[in-house]
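lol forgot to send this yesterday, sorry. C-alpha cells for the thing we talked abt
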C-alpha cells in the first residue's frame, strides 16, 4: 500500500530526528571523552583509566548507530527485509 504524503513527511521527520540525535550523541561522546582523556593524562597521572569510559560509551554509541541507521523505521535494511517477506508471502498465496 503506497504511503500518503503526510505519512512520508512523518516518516522523514522521524528518521531525520533519529539521525540528528545520533550526531549529537557523537559530538557529546567526542567532547566528553577528550576531556576525560586530558584529565587522565595531565591531571591524574598517566594511568590509562580513561579507556574504560571510552569503550563503554563507545559501545553504546555503536548500538545507537545500528538502531538508527540499520534497524530504524524506514531504514534500508528493514525495508529490504519487509519487502522480501512480502514477496515470499505473495508467492505462497499465489501457489494456493
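and heres what i got for the seq, position by position
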Amino acid at each position: 500500500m503506497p504511503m500518503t504524503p503526510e505519512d512520508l513527511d512523518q516518516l522523514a521527520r522521524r528518521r531525520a530526528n533519529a539521525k540528528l540525535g545520533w550526531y549529537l550523541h557523537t559530538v557529546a561522546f567526542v567532547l566528553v571523552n577528550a576531556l576525560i582523556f586530558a584529565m587522565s593524562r595531565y591531571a591524574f597521572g598517566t594511568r590509562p583509566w580513561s579507556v574504560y569510559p571510552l569503550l563503554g560509551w563507545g559501545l553504546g554509541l555503536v548500538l545507537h548507530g545500528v538502531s538508527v541507521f540499520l534497524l530504524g523505521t524506514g531504514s534500508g535494511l528493514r525495508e529490504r527485509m519487509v519487502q522480501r517477506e512480502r514477496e515470499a508471502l505473495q508467492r505462497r498465496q499465489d501457489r494456493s
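The chain has one domain: 5-95. anyway ping me if u want another try
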